[in-house]
Amino acid sequence: MKYESNFRKTVKKFFRRKLAVVGLVICLVMLFVAIMGPSLSSYSPSETVVEDRYQPPSSVHLFGTDDLGRDMFARILDGARITVAVGVGSTCIALVAGTLLGLLAGFFGGVFDTVISCFMDALWAFPAIILALAINTVLGPSLLNIFIAIGVVYIPDFFRIVRSRTITIRELEYVIGARAIGQNSISILWHYVLPNMSSTLIVQTTLCCAKAVIAEASLSFLGLGVPLPMASWGSMLKSGYPLLERAPWLSLFPGICIMLLVLGLNFLGDGLRDALDVRIRDD
Amino acid sequence: MAKKIVRKVLLMLPVLFLVSIILFTLMEVLPGDAAYGLGSDVSDEYIQQFREEHGLDKPAYVRYLDWVTNMLKGDFGVSLISGLPIIDRIKVRFPVTLELTLLSMIVAVVIAIPAGILSAVKRNTLPDYLTSVLAMVGVTIPPFWLGMLMVLLFSITLGWLPASGYVELTESVSENLTRMIMPALALGTQFAATVTRQTRSAFLETLDQDYIVTAKAKGLPQRVVIWKHALRNALIPIVTTIGMQTGRLFGGAVVIETVFTLPGIGREIVNSILLRDYPVVMALIMIVAFIVIVINTLIDIIHGLIDPRISQSQQR
Amino acid sequence: MKQETNQEYLLEIKDLTTAFLFDGKPVPVTVNVSYGIKKGEILGIVGESGSGKSVTVKSVLRLLPSPPSSILNGEIYFHGQNLLTLKEKEMQKIRGNKISMIFQEPMTSLNPVYTCGNQITETIMLHQHLSKEEALKKAARMLDLVGIPAPESRLKSYPHQLSGGMRQRVMIAMALSCEPELLIADEPTTALDPTIQAQIITLIKELRDSIGLSVMYITHDLAVVAEICDRVVVMYAGMVMEIAEIRDLFHAPLHPYTQGLMQAMPRINQQSEMLYNIPGMVPHATQMPTGCRFQPRCPYATEVCSQACPELVDAGDGHMVRCFHYEKLRKERVQNG
Amino acid sequence: MKMANMKRALAILLVFASLFSLAACGSGTNEEVLATDDDASASVESPATEVSAAETGNGIKRGGVLTVAKMTNITSLDPTKSSSIDNDGFVLAQIFETLLRQDEEGNIIDGLAESYEVAEDGLSITFKLREDVVFHDGEKFNAEAAKFNLDWYISEECGHINYSSELTYVDSIDLIDEYTIRMNMSAVDASILASMTGLCGYMISPKTIKEGTIATNPAGTGAFKVKEYVEGDHVTLEAFENYYRMGEDGKPLPYLDEVVIKIMTDDAVRSANLESGDIDGVDYHGSTNSILKFENKEGFQSHTVPSVNNYFVSFNLNNEVLADIRVRQAMAYAVDRQEFIDVVLEGYGTTVPFVVRKDQWYYSDYNPYTYDPEKAKELLAEAGYADGLTVKMYYISREPDATAVQLIQAQFAEVGITMELEGMDRLAWIDLVRTQKSGELGFGVLANFGYDASRQFNSTTYYVDTTKATRLTELLPKTRASFDRDERLKSLHEYQKEYLDNCYHLFVGQNQRITSYKDTVQNVNYHWYAVAKYDEVWLSE
């Protein structure tokens, strides 16, 4: 058996899982759509054309038009940018803050750990939507504030995982060894502890993106999602609902897109978990 | 074991205190004033009178201290808008949310755990695919949309189930349940999906362990190997997921209560935040936070019971 | 392949071939494995890791999970019954009752969330239909038999509260609690440090002498084999290379692979710094050489070795060997004494 | 293993397809609802079918429960705690009754007071009360009870500023005899009669006022009394057995056994419940989508609620750009109000110059601003912004406000005004726009219940910095200074002219509130202040 670098072996294991590949493809397509945005379609998402309102999907308007005559396909593309941004943005905030606090609390322990843990438990005890709703109202609706509002809700998730992993890793020989050769704590955390949990973090990040997308949809249902001229898929879902009889495509297409994105993220997350998990043999 | 429980309970107090601090600062910083909540055609003099009447013009820390002292005395205070004691509102609304969350938890656990076990044991067969597919769909569909699609299908098109309203369990069980099926399913689906997936992966991992081979080598039938030896070990990660999810359940209840117009705590919290009725917001969220913390502590205790290794080693 | 009268054997494996799935295709891991164990005998099964020794014994109790593994052909006779054709219900009556097994990793072989007492009484009550109290009493006696101090209290403790050696003793107590006729020990002492290893070995020998237990002892450690086994089966790359009495194996090994193993064993009075080791590596199941599987690493390999696979033949009073040139090699050894 | 995954992926797609086909087919059942959009912009006059004439005499069926959903939260069942008709009027009107009432044209007619007489000098009004009225808690309604109510409203203890602002000129109440009282005024106040038909005219049982239990078990003289009240969720009202008004069949009103009023803040949820039959009607639709859904839907009737929302753009007069009247007027000319009605309100609205409905007696069509982009550009150039101007608009992030501001943004762009948008939650918006702390433009809505002209005009000053518009505060009291209608009309129109000339608000348009009920709900009428009357309603099934 020729020697394969660990990375290539993981990649090979990943690509052997059909669903993981499907997930990766979906995510890449969504990312591409999000980056390219409405430029992909000839219509502009905000151009109101009063005459051709409520047109069903046709060759002219791929996804039909909405109550203001705007082309739904363009709006979906525009929505993609915002929804993916919300997913990625809030997850980054949760990832960075949660990991940082988790590492520090887990590694140093003592009073610092108890205080931060209590604070995180307090954040955790808040019903997720309420925390997001309150922060969103305080900061006022803007895209960045939505990132913060949803991001803060998932900080405890990352905190708990990182902290418990740090505690176990801290006891391992090679960390004690590193300390023995005079490494200071920060470089130990950076070079030894963090890389060791990279696989769990990657998996958690993808799954957290999925949760954030759904959380944004729920927030916009309560009327406090992305500020209105901007429309994420979640808010389109809500505003399209009353028209479900009159113009079902207004609600169905955003719904399918959300489910496809979340599905892709979950497949990717599962695939990564199996591929990165050394224990699972490649049967 | 007892020492551990006491420590955990004691830890709940600072957490609750922190929750109230975060909550109060959030409400303080919210722009706009409860007086405006009464209606747009409120005159300026009335707003001033309203502020004095409810002591809103007192400095923040004074109001916080008053609130805490009343809270400790068990007096939840009075709603700014309606002037009625909040305790009455809680008495009516709390059972609704409790029933909704419990029902969706039961629906989830009763369906999710057996489904997870089935798909783990009968890996790569039809039941395994079906459960994983349903679990996947359950995770991806936004709960409120699922609820609305259900209303569209079962209430409007088929007319089988009422689309809204709540009837106390004591009044008539059948009426109550017909109104609670859809909300419980809508809220429970995401919960069930996560628990199913967690059960499946926990069971797959457990069935690979050496002590399972030992159990089989001892001549135990498959049934005993799974339901005695594998289940109890797999329960540890499952119970953690259920614990983590319950916290999220109350969040989800807010949305589902609005979709099905149930007089629960979630919907009331949203209204009160929008109306800046801060005594109501504080009281209701403190209750929800208290329940979530109690559930987390219960989960930790259950952990200790299931896994003897934990009760000895001082794992936080 | 004529076999001696098989009544003499308590358990006999005939032409057993088991396969595992690699990239979806079943690849044989053991090929035509045949050997038997007599009543009251300790049969050693020796071979490097990956030689298929533990796969074979696990197939005896049909413990290998069916999707990846499958038994292509062969029979396993126990008291005249072919274990491979038994219904699962009958097989369960044999496991832990007539044939029981202990494993290599004491740390993970016991269920961490149940007390040792619970796990032992479970077997007793299952097979011997005793009441809880009687089962507990018997379990305590078993723990005492395997040399665990204060057995009553130990019954209540959990596996993580015991040391590795203690746990292996609990495993042995559990395995012997229903007085089985055959104990399969799959590298029971590998994970233990030498002092504990010696205690376990003496314990097994005493049990063999006291209750006439026959033991299949799987190991890769020749020192242990010398210490405990009556007869030895040498396996390499999924095939039986040599079966011999302990004396013949150490003094007159016929198969080049066995000779290589003997030389590789460090001797107390050995002067040379460099330890001898057999060149090359065990080939993976999917890349087996043609002909004799040892020929790429065999110093005496000739043309014929790579064309055909030698049969396992009797070189005299039961000493079996699978090599074309064993006769020649034996004469040379006798000449240069 | 590979085959297994492929099967799993196919199964997933299968589930999706079935889930949506079920939902889609579920929605598409009644084809004729998918009305093409041309009749949506039907002419204003008949957007909804008029209510069929009440069945006479024998057709009426008694009994049954009417379930209705309303949009906003009920603040309180205690009229003195409620400060807005919109929130609580819907419920209070079924429980309490007022001293006087108004007919469609706004003339003051009898109520709990059979008749009233204004003294020569207009400084005192004598009310002759009905003698056959009883409160829900059994107390008798007489002059003493009426005096007790009014004394309490103007007392320090009640302190309900809203009452006192309407009752500023009421001095004292004299008891003439068992069923007559006289109200002495410190100054002539024509709107006092209108106030007696609104919140200040409610007659509450003195027993509940003394015991302070109005909010928990209110006792009025109305057709229904409160059976159950779950704050923030629903109120159940049951028929009041000895109600003094008689029905067409000679027996006391109301025909219904019970009325359940539910709070459903979400418009989509409300129309779903109406469609599924869980509720029989709504107070008014929250979105044009719901109006279109039930407009000519089989089994439902729609009609107009005599109350409107006036959409306006407010100007922060402290902002130096907007302090220049030419800039404000330029904006007023830049807005195409008809397009606002067609696009945002889908035809369900009217373009009116001010906040008054066309059918109200004090309506005036004085309108200096029509859609004239050229004039707007001229004014902007005059004011020194020939090469464009940037302003910021704050709005409440809800429909139709969000769509409206985008439309105005597009229209302003045509005249060179670039407008940034910032949406926020309602109370944050009120806090910002009302206190004129910061911000330039605000897009908001003023509800016109139309039960009193002066009170209505007073609400137009809420979002104006009156220190910069002193003329308004002088004119307002004049609008109520004389009982003679023609005189009041003059001062009302003068106020409107002053307001529009200075362009303190840019009025974009008025939307009619449309509601829908099941066909089985007969004879729904409306109080003069936009709230449904259920005392004469009956169910045909």
In short:
The complex is a heterotetramer of chains A (283), B (316), C (337) and D (541). Chain A has 11 helices and no strands.
| Subunit organisation of the chains | heterotetramer
Arrangement of strands in the largest sheet of chain D: 13-17-12-16-14-15
Q: Would you identify the CATH H-level superfamily of the domain at 89-274 in chain B?
A: MetI-like
Unreliable residue runs of chain B: none
Tally of DSSP β-strands of chain D:
21
CATH homologous superfamily name of the largest domain in chain D?
A: Dipeptide-binding Protein, Domain 3
Low-confidence runs of at least 5 consecutive residues of chain D:
15-56
Q: Helical amount among residues of chain B, as a percent range?
A: over 70%
Provide a descriptive summary of the structure in words.
The complex is a heterotetramer of chains A (283), B (316), C (337) and D (541). With 283 residues, chain A is mainly α. Chain A is 72% helix and 0% strand. Chain A has one domain (58-276): MetI-like fold, CATH 1.10.3720. Chain A contains eleven helices and no strands. The mean pLDDT of chain A is 83. Chain B has 316 residues and is mainly α. Chain B has a domain at 89-274: MetI-like fold, CATH 1.10.3720. Chain B contains twelve helices and no strands. In chain B, α4 (86-121) crosses α7 and α9 packs antiparallel against α11. The radius of gyration of chain B is 24 Å and the shape is globular. Chain B starts with a helix and ends with a helix. With 541 residues, chain D is α+β, with helices and mostly antiparallel strands. Chain D folds into three domains: 3-21 and 308-513, Roll (Dipeptide-binding Protein, domain 3), CATH 3.10.105.10; 53-77 and 212-305 and 514-539, D-Maltodextrin-Binding Protein, domain 2; 97-209, Dipeptide-binding Protein, domain 1, CATH 3.90.76. Chain D has 17 helices and 21 strands. Chain D is globular, with a radius of gyration of 26 Å. Classes of the chains: A mainly alpha (283), B mainly alpha (316), C alpha/beta (337), D alpha+beta (541). Chains B and D meet through α2, α4, α5, α6 and α10 of B and α1, α2, α4, α7 and α14 of D.
Characteristic key phrases:
heterotetramer, B: 316 residues, mainly alpha, MetI-like fold, 77% helix, globular, D: alpha+beta, Dipeptide-binding Protein, domain 3, D-Maltodextrin-Binding Protein, domain 2, Dipeptide-binding Protein, domain 1, 3 domains, 6-stranded mixed sheet
